[in-house]
Design brief:
With 517 residues, the chain is α/β, with parallel strands linked by helices. It is built from 17 helices and 24 strands. The chain has three domains: 4-241, 3-Layer(aba) Sandwich (Rossmann fold); 246-338 and 426-517, P-loop containing nucleotide triphosphate hydrolases (Rossmann fold, 3-Layer(aba) Sandwich), CATH 3.40.50.300; 352-425, no CATH class. The longest helix is centred in the middle third of the chain and has 16 residues, at 177-192.
């Protein structure tokens, strides 16, 4: 074994239990100084729990943590910060109404006579952002910037605190392909500067590209640690899932039917700027096809979905659903008109986090006769329904239907939303980043479910930033760039490179209104 001084962090025999679940069962993880060490495992394998123990958010039931060879006690995140351990969480810990600069210095302010030294702080942040290639607008409010930018803010927060051990929890789950490439460069740069990185992920290609070593967890147990250069993606996926996984979607050619969703010259205002985020977009989605909106994050996809689902008012244009005009209909009416929505932000728009899993599964349907009688909810029916969905979609949680949504792993929260939306059996499914933050096994399952919905005659509008998913799942691709549709592509006839050129705005088709039937 290596000499102790080579390890900056050692987590030895860590065990952590929650009601109904052993999240970490005797796990040992050793981080060498100056390495990128990946932590790989399925959703709910215990990766985030292990890192939360290291960051002081949880106390281990057994085991010890060493920093530079010496045992340490990390009672809370402030202790972690004092030991120069920082963490970028999967769901960012930012204050929406504060500016980027205020978020970065919050809790670590330099004060003089009780006043925050903003000028000095700003200088330091600007210097860090230049040095590490992390360009952000320091004066923008967090609620107005893209998810990719929010992540940069989280990284700058760590660097501002002079952290030397950096934990990235699923950092690419929310990023575009371009942003992922940039993040990989940033991570390599950080290690060159002497930082050590723990990188939680279940994306095999990223792990292969960026990590030096990989530790694999499965169902809370330690499976092994391997040197990345000496292993392969199939080998890692076998260690992670316990069996071989099919990485390509099996699907027959689409059999499109009638137009379900028809959008004409739609304009949706931008929250951030005075202009429209969606500028005159027109397209149709027919029954029995998967139409994918592809693009780099921040090109109007989010606002387009908000406009379609009623989360944002449209400033011009029309939306028809099965021939019915729903341009100005409230959200509930759109839902009744036949739209189910798997949202981009599962915490803000997908779940009521303090409700139980079973309550979340009937959020839109509790008024239906099967779930209520004379205004009283039939709890037994809700329970039976929840148990069926949990079984069918492999939603893993400590206490089954009674589990509080907040306590579930991100991937299992996602599965719950997908189960609820697909099971509503409506003519149109709008799926935004449906497999974000899911592992290969779960992605395989959800892609199968989406294709099955298409084959059952549903119209699917997929919005995805994952190029593999776009190419694999869609029957037609519409590329959005700066609020407009700049190309309509056939996934069978195009390449990832060509798609990338449209996404970057380097190429556009004339008449790409997507109106062609």
């Amino acid at each position: 074994m290596d000499h102790e001084q080579d390890y900056v962090i050692e987590m030895l025999h860590i065990t952590k239990e929650f009601p109904g679940i052993k999240a970490n069962d005797d796990i040992t993880l050793q981080l060498r100084r100056g390495e990128i060490h990946a932590l790989l495992g399925e959703n709910g394998a215990g990766k985030s729990t292990l890192m939360s123990v290291l960051f002081g958010l949880y106390q281990p039931d057994q085991g010890e943590i060493r920093k530079d060879g010496k045992p340490v006690k990390i009672n809370n995140p402030n202790d972690a910060t004092a030991l120069h351990i920082g963490m970028v969480h999967q769901h960012f810990k930012l204050i929406d109404v504060f500016t980027v600069l205020d978020n970065i210095i919050l809790g670590a302010e330099d004060t003089k006579f009780g006043f925050v030294q903003r000028k000095e702080a700003r200088k330091k942040v600007e210097e860090l952002s230049r040095r590490y290639g992390l360009a952000v607008d320091l004066d923008a409010k967090v609620e107005d910037i893209t998810v990719g930018m929010q992540q940069r803010v989280e990284i700058l927060k760590m660097l501002y605190r002079d952290n030397e051990v950096l934990i990235f929890d699923e950092p690419t789950a929310v990023l575009t392909p371009q942003e992922i490439t940039e993040l990989m460069q940033i991570m390599k740069g950080l290690v060159k500067e002497g930082k050590s990185i723990l990188f939680i992920s279940h994306k095999l290609n990223e792990i292969m590209e960026v990590s030096d070593r990989v530790t694999v967890l499965r169902k809370g147990r330690y499976i092994g640690t391997v040197v990345t250069a000496e292993t392969t993606a199939p080998e890692l996926s076998r260690m992670m899932v316990g069996h071989d996984v099919q990485l390509v979607v099996d699907k027959a050619p689409a059999q499109p039917g009638d137009v379900v969703l028809s959008v004409r010259d739609l304009h949706v205002p931008s929250k951030l700027y005075k202009h429209d985020a969606v500028k005159g977009v027109s397209f149709d989605v027919r029954a029995g096809e998967i139409v994918c909106i592809a693009g780099i994050d921040g090109n109007g996809q989010t606002e387009l979905v908000f406009g379609l689902t009623g989360l944002e008012k449209c400033s011009a244009g029309t939306i028809q659903m099965c021939g019915q005009d729903i341009t100005h209909a409230p959200i509930r009416k759109r839902s009744e008109a036949g739209i189910s929505h798997i949202p981009e932000d599962r915490h803000k728009h997908g779940l009521v986090l303090d409700f139980s899993l079973e309550q979340n599964l009937v959020l839109q349907t509790f008024e239906e006769l099967r779930f209520q009688s004379m205004g009283f909810i039939r709890f037994g029916e809700v329970r039976k329904y929840a148990e069926r969905l949990i079984e069918q979609y492999d939603v893993r949680s400590g206490q089954g239907p009674l589990t509080v949504a907040r306590s579930m792993s991100g991937g299992n929260q996602q599965k719950a939303i997908i189960a609820r939306e697909i099971d509503r059996d409506l003519p149109l499914i709008i799926a935004v980043q449906p497999t974000r933050g899911l592992d290969v096994g779960a992605i395989e399952n959800i892609h199968r479910q989406i294709v099955a919905q298409r084959d059952a005659g549903k119209a699917v509008l997929l919005v995805s930033l994952e190029l593999d998913e776009v190419m694999n799942l869609s029957d037609r691709i519409l590329v959005m760039y700066e609020g407009e549709i700049v190309g309509e592509l056939d996934p069978k006839k195009t390449t990832v490179e060509e798609l990338g050129l449209y996404m970057a705005g380097a190429k556009r088709q004339e008449h790409a209104e997507g109106v062609r039937a």
